[in-house]
Amino acid sequence: MKKILIYLILFSFLNSTVLFGKNKYYDDAQVFYDMVQFDEALKTLDDAIDKVENTNDDLIAIYLLKAKIYIVLNKETEAKNFFLKLLFLDGNYKISSDESPKIVEFFENVKKKFQESLTVKLSPAEILFTPVTKTDYKDKLPVSVIISNMNESRDAKIFYRMIGYDKFMKSDLMPLSGDDFEGYIPLSVDQNSQDFMIEYFIGVLDFQGSIIASYPDQSNPILLTVTVPEKIIEKKDDSVNNKGNNSTSSSIFEKWWFWTIVIGVVGGGVGTYFLLNEGETKASTYSPSFTITLP
Length: 295
Fold this sequence. Notes:
By secondary structure, this protein is α+β, with helices and mostly antiparallel strands. It has 2 domains: 2-119 and 259-285, Alpha Horseshoe (Serine Threonine Protein Phosphatase 5, Tetratricopeptide repeat), CATH 1.25.40; 126-237, Sandwich (Immunoglobulin-like), CATH 2.60.40.10. It has 8 helices and 10 strands. It has helices at residues 2-19, 24-34, 38-50, 56-72, 76-89, 101-117, 230-241, 258-276, and strands at 126-128, 134-136, 140-148, 155-162, 169-172, 174-175, 180-186, 196-205, 211-215, 222-227. The strands form 2 sheets. Strands 2, 4, 5, 8, 9 and 10 form a 6-stranded mixed sheet that branches. Strand 8 and strand 9 (211-215) form a beta hairpin. The longest helix has 19 residues, at 258-276.
């Protein structure tokens, strides 16, 4: 039984690494998840959203992994919110029967409530927000918003873009309690000048993905000026100059640490397995006995 479990974990790890290679941040997050390093996995999944232009299928995989992590951590509200984000992209999504029964049951309950919410008639969403128009550079600009008349059938996002770009990017607003929502705008220093500008607005979407309310009007977004300190620019320049010496584009299989991670994945994956399947042995005390021969 132990050998079968180990082989399954190894296959799952290698399969996710090879097939989802479009987004290296997701790949890394999957490795952290298998190693039971959940905080690192969540941070890396944020990068997978913020630093890569994803398809809906990519986002579904990211939201699914986030929800699974929060279920393991017994944070049901956060898990529910990310399952809802997933269902907004695909309301008919069917979770794999290979997932833990605990995850499958939780998802099916969220899906049922989501589908029930689609029949509820709501008043127009109302957005209360104090615009931020200036900020010093930081990795993320926190955004707090009050939105009334929301339920599982409505989603809230921040739409933002650099000045000069046509397409708005989207960042999630997550419900806290009552009508309070919180999110952030990812910022970047990849600019030619010290200061740069972003325009953004808050949008509420229906289950079909259409914007049904916004603040301000999406045709007249808020203008945000970001001041970048000189030391940040110098650090960016040094990073560009050294880029050729620190390439991360090579295959994960070519890196010396890959097989070290595989070993960690086996032990960590077993830990995750027992965290999701409370039963025979606790993950913190389980010590598998086997040998791996490296190439």
